[in-house]
Amino acid sequence: MKTTSKTKSNQPDQNDPAGQSDLSHLAEAIVSNAGSGIYIVSQGCFVYVSRLYKKLTGYTDAELIGVCSLDNIHPDDREMVRNEAICCLKAQRHEPYEYRFINKKNEIMWVLETITPIVYKGARATLGSFMDITGRKQAEEALQKSEEKYRNIFNNVHEGIYQATPEGRFILVNQAMAQILGYESPEELLQSITDISSQLYVQPDDRKKVIELIERQGFVRDMELQFYRKDKRKIWVSRTMQAVRDDHGNIQYLEGLIDDITDRKNSFDQLRKALSGTVQAIASLVETRDPYTAGHQDRVVDLARAIARQMGLSKEQIDGLRIAGKIHDIGKVSVPAELLSLPRKLSDLEFELIKTHAQAGYEIIKDIEFPWPIARIVLEHHERMDGSGYPNGLTGKDILPESRVLAVADVVEAMATHRPYRPALGLSAALEEITRNRGVRYDKDAVDACLCLFREKKYTIN
Q1: Which candidate, 90, 191, 358, 411, has a CA 20 to 30 Å from the CA of 224?
Q2: Phi and psi (nearest 5°) for 122?
Q3: Is residue 56 a contact partner of residue 37, using CB atoms and an 8 Å limit?
Q4: In a domain, 23, yes or no
Q5: Residue-wise pLDDT tens digits, 161-179
Q6: What is the domain-level CATH number for residue 53?
Q7: Could you please report the per-residue DSSP string of 264-287?
Q8: Across 51-55, 310-314, 316-320, 337-341, least confident range
Q9: 211 and 78 within one domain
Q10: What stretches of 8-140 adopt beta strand conformation (E)?
């Protein structure tokens, strides 16, 4: 039987007994499609460069083969690259390193390179993997500049900046924060303050209130508090703070700003004392012209402040009420004195003249720059929620909260005490009046607070 010979494709190539040409083609295909440029350097010069290496650098075979491998490296990085190559050959290590390369367009590009020693054509050589990381380096440099800019702002602003745990320990503070609290450096502050509540707050319970507020609304803004400095001196600070939460809504840390307002507070206190003296002088002038209502304004002030506290109005609003209450009848200086002390019921015309005192009081003090809306409170203290008041017939929310409180206090005091034209109607009648007109003529919250004072807390008009 005739033996069938093997096909040509299955027979070994007599000129390439080991299939070296196939392996060579395979190796070239792998190198050409690698994610980085590949090269071989022997005796300091390129002997092979892959297509991607040429594409990344812009050079051709003719411009690279036989050329010193250091020629196109940035001059400032050549020594480092030379040392890396020497260390690699001695220690057989393969750690990547970064350096600057100058491409054919004379542009500087950053590269990440890994080299390993090999034998090439019987001689020691170096196999290198060359990757362009210019984009990454540019992004890193941009981020670094951004961080440096933020760091400069963080360290040089006048406000104290901080981060703290909900439990009460600082995580991060800037130099201004340290200086405000009397410490030499942020590091000293971080080491010294281990319990913010007990070491920093003059009133430790204030921090509990702050945390409760943060839990409810996520932030506090322009809150004024007293802190201890390192030397135990008390200072006033204005603090803004917010919570930073994780994906589950749990507070990770608190961050915010503080500003030392001690000088401002002291100046304000001095101004307030001077202002109080002026206000007292004005109030005394009113009472001189209307002796039968002597003490009326003081009693109205006490009751109005008590109502405001019961309602939970702010300290600033209560302070404004104190000043406005002391001079709410200042406009009576423009009313004929005989009308203020008539021992009979006023006629309609006479009452219309008396009613002008609210507008007249506004005109007298409108140009004085109080830190509270004093002129407006004086103008509105006879306005009523249903529009039946004077001088402008305002309604509801058009009337300041302070004006609504003062209106209730004024009515109750006036009815409960003696007047030239009638004896005191009594407290019961006064409370009946505001109860009957709760939410109609008078603010319901102010009425409720007033009734609570008299019926539950046994408040008395002195």
Answers
A1: 191
A2: 80, 0
A3: yes
A4: no
A5: 899 998 899 999 999 999 9
A6: 3.30.450.20
A7: HHHHHHHHHHHHHHHHHHHHHHHH
A8: 337-341
A9: no
A10: 37-42, 45-49, 97-102, 108-120, 123-132
